[in-house]
Amino acid sequence: MYSDEPQKRRMAEVGGPLGMAGGLFFVLSEAYLAALAVSLVAGSALQGRFLRAGAYLLGGAVVVWLVHGIGLTLGQVLVAGLGVAYFKIRGWNGGRHE
Asked: Do 59 and 86 touch, CB atoms closer than 8 A?
């Protein structure tokens, strides 16, 4: 936004929304996994299976942690792919104007 070069301005204008969209996708998937883990823990605890509830709690934390790590990597790939697609649709070819 603070550059005089049109290419840098276009990249700045599109980078924020694409990054937010990619991040939102993975935040929602983590929230779903966390809700699933909480429901399994609560269901087991209400049935009196406290050992199983503890196992679900630990397992759910590990799964959410793994999904978060994978999501950080895939999020960058997703955002980069969306950025390339956006610039191809808009007709911007990386500074070569024909």
From this structure: no
Closest CA to 67 of 59, 7, 1, 92: 59
Task: Tell me the pTM.
Answer: 0.50
Token pair 């694409």 is found at 18
Closest CA to 44 of 31, 35, 56: 56
Q: pLDDT (tens digit, 9 = 90+) per residue, 23-39? A: 777 778 778 877 888 88
Tell me the DSSP string of 36-74. Answer: HHHHHHHHHHHTT-HHHHHHHHHHHHHHHHHHHHHHHHH
Residue with tokens 């793994």, as numbered in its chain: 66
The alpha carbon of residue 3 and the mean position of all alpha carbons in its chain are separated, in whole angstroms, by: 29
Closest CA to 9 of 96, 92, 98, 73: 92
Confidence of residue 93 (pLDDT cuts 50, 70, 90): low
